[in-house]
Design brief:
Bifunctional nuclease domain; 8-stranded mixed sheet; alpha+beta
Length: 144
């Protein structure tokens, strides 16, 4: 990954937003310049991201917890998550996994990638091009 084309972001949280199809969850990724990348996500992924952000214990492993447990048992680790493309309003992400010094890339939805990154404390990066084309100034959102 060419680091000059990406910037590290933090997960600001999961919120509810009005969309053409009704109220829907949205996750905000924030860069150092206080620009926010809003990504609409599904309800299950929103729940998974929110429980991970709040470090809420769950009686049984959720799907994202299960995948992390499997990866740990197989001695592999999520190195980072990269959101690197936007096409027709759809974001594309990759999960970078390391095992025995080898690196593997997996195509994934950003919401799943974010849910996994939070759980294993992996950094999340967004391409500068995607941030340029789809982010908004944090001040333009009225968060409650």
């Amino acid at each position: 990954m060419d680091d000059s084309k990406f910037q590290k972001v933090k997960i600001s949280g999961v919120f509810m937003a009005n969309a053409p199809e009704g109220v829907t969850p949205i996750v905000f990724l924030e860069n150092e310049e206080k620009r926010i990348l809003p990504i609409y996500i599904g309800a299950a992924e929103a729940f998974s991201i929110q429980t991970a952000l709040e470090k809420l214990p769950y009686p049984r492993p959720l799907t994202h917890d299960l995948l992390i447990n499997i990866m740990e048992e197989l001695k592999s680790k999520i190195e980072k998550v990269v959101i690197d493309d936007l096409n027709d309003g759809i974001f594309f992400a990759r999960i970078i996994v390391k095992k025995n010094g080898d690196e593997y890339e997996f195509d994934a939805r950003p919401s799943d990638s974010i849910a996994l990154a939070i759980r294993c404390e992996a950094p999340v990066y967004v391409s500068k091009k995607v941030m340029e084309n789809a982010s908004v100034d944090k001040k333009s959102y009225k968060l409650k």
